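Weekly sync notes, structure subgroup
Attendees: PM, AL, DS (notes)

Item 1: joint prediction request from the bench team. They want all two components modeled as one assembly rather than separately. Inputs as received:
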Amino acid sequence: MPRRTRDLPGAAVLRDEVRCFDRECERLLDRSAGKFVLIRGDAVAGVYETEAAAVSAGYATFGPVPFLVRQILSTPERARLEIHEGRA
Amino acid sequence: MPVFHGKVQDLRREGVLLPVRVGVGQAAEAALRRAGRAPPAAQAVTAMVDIGAGRSLIRVGLAKKLVLTPVGTVEIDTPSSTDLEAAEYFVRFWLSDSFALESTALEAPLPGHDLGALLGRDVLALARLEYDGPGQEYTLTFDQPAAR
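Output from the run, pasted for the record:
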């Protein structure tokens, strides 16, 4: 059963793109592991060597709209945030 | 070589704090102009340098103020929550009027009312940080020339 996550603001906007990434992930891993994929809506728009190149291509192609840039990895990246407690 | 030096009254408790402005990235700015929209002004915030964070963060709400559009999502865990999906934005951190760095930043809750951003190891990968505990000072030195 897939894990359920809670969206912080803005994250839900890319639902279609994340679904597309999950669907295409194996194919992308075969050909382009470690590179960065650009996805808009339900379609892969390109694969780039760097994150910055993919982001630039996204804005150049689609304009100032949401799109997904994600590194093609077998294990999805997950961040652990240890917030500095002194200022809490 | 850009050098940023600061003194914090209680460095141990407060951490390495510095004033920055957070704005849209260059590619987004160009896209906004092509669409006939003026890029929003960068927002002045206090940022904390955190060598324990792999990624830079911006406070929840800042993306809306800057009319940023997300370029990614990342699952995050915090000490109080797990399985949160955070939006990721491509931003420019202005450390002075003539020096800015572009980086992705997650939008996530930050402690306190006055902290607007956290600069993680993604930004520090471009810098050297000297921490002077007894003197309550820090120096952040970037090797790359000024970028706009």
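Discussion: Residues 84-88 of chain A have pLDDT under 50 and may be disordered.
Action: AL to compare against the crosslinking data before next sync.
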